[in-house]
UniProtKB/TrEMBL annotation:
Binding site for GTP: D59, I60, R61, S62
Name of the featured protein: RNase adapter RapZ
Domain spans labelled RapZ-like N-terminal: 1-155
The RapZ C-terminal domain, residue ranges: 164-282
Family matches, as InterPro entries: P-loop_NTPase, RapZ-like, RapZ-like_N, RapZ_C
Source organism of the structure: Anaerostipes hominis (ex Liu et al. 2021)
UniProt binding sites for ATP: G8, M9, S10, G11, A12, G13, K14, S15
Length: 284
């Protein structure tokens, strides 16, 4: 039996994760009061209850402090119940956007600003995140991509690295993406835009890829970028980082940046971390 506690930031996708776990056969309970955690764990020990896999959603809405929550988890552990913690996270910018789109109030900002509620909650749950078995940052994830991560962990039971990489191409003339951690400018590379036969194509097309990568500076840049990221990522993980967004920009975000982003993603896929690719401005 797997006993999963789903927690994390409000608005990061906990309810969606619980629904996905329910779809794969988990008995799910959302917003369980913290003080009922031990009582529920006792039920899982009762063979007559006929409960197989369980997922409980517990978060700031329960009203308990994180210290109380951790005390209850220790009691569950002492009972001999093995549990796993799935922590859902997202950037402040994305959380604010989601709250505004749904026109909901944050649980800790009933009569104040959403931003203040998010900051209070993040400060409260940071300690809990240290105990998580799995941390999924949903800032860059579509619903189907979150489902793929849930399936990978709880259906296929693959090893999970608790670190996600997103490689994003963009055009500088449209602005740098707000949530990137590292920005690389590839406008120094030869530009296929000036070849009228290549201009309508994108970096997803073979002729553009051949044009960009036939130049030595493109290959050397890619090699040095890969080497630097292989050094950086383990050190980011050591410092407690769970998500890395790499922005690669050219002038319009259609040719050079797309080509280099695709090539970099292929190299990073050799590492034991999920890699997502996004071409923000490819259709502009």
């Amino acid at each position: 039996m797997r006993f999963v506690i789903v927690t994390g930031m409000s608005g990061a996708g906990k309810s969606s994760a619980l629904k996905m776990l329910e779809d794969i056969g988990y008995f799910c309970v959302d917003n369980l009061p913290t003080r009922l955690l031990c009582k529920f764990a006792e039920l899982t020990l009762d063979k007559t209850a006929n409960i197989s896999n369980v997922a409980l959603g517990i978060d700031i809405r329960s009203g308990a402090s994180i210290d109380e929550f951790l005390d209850e988890l220790k009691k569950v552990h002492d009972m001999g119940v093995k549990f796993e913690i799935l922590f859902l996270n997202a950037s402040n910018r994305i959380l604010i956007k989601r709250y505004k789109e749904t026109r909901r109030n944050h649980p800790l900002a009933r009569s104040g600003r959403i931003e203040d509620g998010i900051e209070k909650e993040r400060e409260a749950v940071n300690e809990l995140k240290k105990y998580a078995d799995y941390v999924i940052d949903t800032s860059q994830l579509l619903t189907r991509e979150l489902k793929a991560e849930i399936d990978r962990i709880f259906v296929r039971e693959e090893e999970y690295a608790n670190f996600n990489v997103a490689a994003v191409s963009f055009g500088f003339k449209f602005g740098i993406p707000a949530d990137v951690d590292l920005v690389f400018d590839v406008r120094f590379l030869p530009n296929p835009y000036y070849d009228l036969s290549l201009r309508p194509l994108t970096g997803n097309d073979g002729p553009i890829q051949e044009f960009v990568m036939k130049h030595e500076e493109s290959r050397v840049f890619l090699e040095k970028l890969e080497d630097m990221l292989k050094f950086l990522i383990p050190n980011y993980i050591k410092e407690g980082k769970y998500n890395l967004v790499i922005g690669i920009g050219c002038t319009g975000g259609k040719h050079r940046s797309v080509t280099i982003t695709n090539a970099l993603a292929e190299k990073l896929k050799q590492l034991p971390y999920p890699v997502k690719v996004e071409h923000r401005d490819i259709t502009r």
